[in-house]
Structure formats: structure tokens, C-alpha cells
Amino acid sequence: MGGVLVSVHVVAVLAVVLAAALVGRTAARAVRQPEVIGEILAGLLIVPAVAAVAGHGALAGLLPPDVLDVLKHIGKIGLVLFLVGVAHELRRGSGSLGSRTVGWVTLGSFVPALLSGLVFAAWVLWSDDEALRGGAPALSLVLMIAVALSVTAVPVLARILEDRDLMAGRNGKLSMAAAVFTDSTAWLLLVVALGTASGGWGGVVRSVVVLAIGVALALLGRVLLRGRTSNTLAARFPRLMSVVVAVVALALAIEMENWGLTAVFGAFIVGLSMPNGEDAHLWEGITRPVASLGRLFVPVFFVVAGMGLFSTPTAELPWVAAVLATVLAIAGKVGGSYLGARLGGESRRDSITIGVMMNTRGLTEIVVLQAGYSAGLLSAGLFLALVIMTLITTGLTGPLLSLIDLRARRTAPRPVLEPQGGTQ
After folding, report:
1. For residue 144, what are the domain limits?
2. Cα–Cα distance between 359 and 43 in angstroms, integer?
3. CA-based R_g, the chain, Å
């Protein structure tokens, strides 16, 4: 009977979380922000809001340990399934441009942002604030913060570009291509950071070996899935193949966690194994339902993250760290991408537009931060400061793009009108 009550309790909590996510998405659309901003805020704030209204005792009753454990699993499952689609989209966007400009924009968007992360990490270590510093090894913490300030969220950027009809334009293509390469490098550095935390340099070697095996599996899967038999099965039984993809992704995610890596790498292995080329449309139809199902339950992931943040008292919110992280993140991404685009031959307006686009962090950043938080690399206060930075930088993308367009219209030369009537 206890199991039945727990199940009913979980379903009730899920209904509340999904309703809150819907409200968050609606509110975000109303103010022309990406929907994920509303979902993140709704997920992170629902737990403190309930505690503030009903008290700590009521919160413990609403989210007892057995229910919270189930929610953690549901949130992780949703995240893994959603990232299968993200990884497939990374492959799809990576082959659109191969020009010299892409290289400059990628370098500009990654290297200065990485250096900004190193500056912020040095400040965290120098401040000697134990609540902010946490207990992570210095090298692991520095790498984790550097990665956090280097990320550009491909899914959120893609959604912003689609909403503004910029995906087919040159700036949109350059931004997406650079974001693909930037995030791929950031994920590799995240492996190193997690590896140094879990077992020193021996952990790094183990993580890199496991990652190499994962890449080999992705390449092997890509070859196998291009075969005629696989394409026939995908065309005839798309729902069954979607189930198979989801099960394999979850199994690999569990295995990656057993090897000391984050579960998201299992999702990336499966997503990267999906064929691109002429079979891309077929396999996109397979991965889309998987990603959509995961997207439905991603807000649960934010609620669990909010439970972790609830341990940080409101009076101790690290506002100085949040402000400094935000300033450095914007300077590194916007400034670096602008410089890279200019070196690549782009105009000033296009360069600043690309810089603003690359400053989008969104869900990808939250996933990276949660991985570092779960591994003990980030303290609750530092995690919260970087979450605030994520929300601000992502939220600025839309308004800044609108401001650039408005300024361009105001400074555009007006057409010369011919006098009516002509000359007699």
C-alpha cells in the first residue's frame, strides 16, 4: 500500500511541476524570452516559494525523501532523452559552414570566454570564502568554472534564431556552427574537470579512455545505422526504433555514471551516432519523439536543482560573485565573438550580432552546472551565482538583438524620393 501512496504522491507532484512549467513558458513568451527561461525560473523557485508560504515542515511533507528520489530519477531520465535530440542537432548544424570565418568566430567565442572563466576562478580562490569556494580540488574547480563561462546553448540559440527567422541567414549559420564547435570542446573539458575530481590524473586518464570508447561506439553506430536494414526498420517501425533509441540512451547514461562520468555523455553518444547526410530526415523523425518526451520532464530536473539550492539561505546569496561572473561572461563571449568575427572579415554590425547570439547559455549551461554541482565541484552558493549569470546572459539575447535591429533601422540611409510631376 505504501508503494501505491508514493506513486500517487509522485504523480501529484509531477502534475504541479508540469503546470508550473507551463505557466513559466507562457510568461516567458509574453515578454519575448525563450521558453526555457520561464521553465528554469519556475523549477528553481517553486521549492523556495512553497517553503516560504507553508514552512519547512510542510515542504518536508510535500517532498519526502522517497518521493524526491523518484523525482531525481525522472528528471535525469528527461534530461538524457532530451539531450539525445540536442546531440543529433549538433551534428546536423556542424556541416553547414566550413569557412575561415567560422574558425575565427569559434576561437573568439571560446578562448576569451575561457580566459574570463580563469579570471573568475582566480577571484573565487583569492576571496578565500569557504562557502563559495567549497571543497573541490583547485584544478577541478578552475576547469569547471572555465567551462561554465565558455558554453553556448545550441538548443536555445536555435530556438531564438528560428523565432526571429535568422536561422537561414549568414549570422545565424555562423553562430550555430561556432556554437557546435565551442560546446563540443567545452564537453571535453568537462570530462577532464570531472576526472580530476573523481581520481586525480588517474581519473582523467580513465575518463578520457571511457570517452574515447564512447566516441568509437558513436562512430560504429553511425556506420551500422546507415545500412539498408536499419533504414528499412526505421521507416517501417519508427515508434519501435524511438523506443530502442531511448532505452539504449538510458542504458549508456547509467553505464557512464558507473564509470565516474556524467550521464549526459550516454545521451550524446546515442545522439551523435544518428546518421546525418541523406538519412538525416529519417532519423530525425526517430529522435524527435525521444527528445520531446525528455523535454516534457526536464522541468523536474530544475525542481531537483532547486531543492539543492534551498540549502543556501537567502541572506547569503553571493551577489558579488553573481555580478562578477555575469560581467566576465558577457565580456568574454560578446567581446571575444565580436573580435573573432571582425578578424574573420565580418562587418561591425554583424560581428556584434554574432557576439550577442553566442552569449546565449540556457539549458546547456544548467546541465553543465548541475553536473559540477552533483560532483561536488561547485558549492551551493557558487552554483547559484552561475545560475543567475546564466539567466541574465540568456535573457539579454532577445532584447539586445532587437536593439541592434532598431539601431540599424535608424541609421540606415533613407531612399531618395523622385520629385512628382517630372520636368517639363
Report:
1. 97-297+311-408
2. 22
3. 23
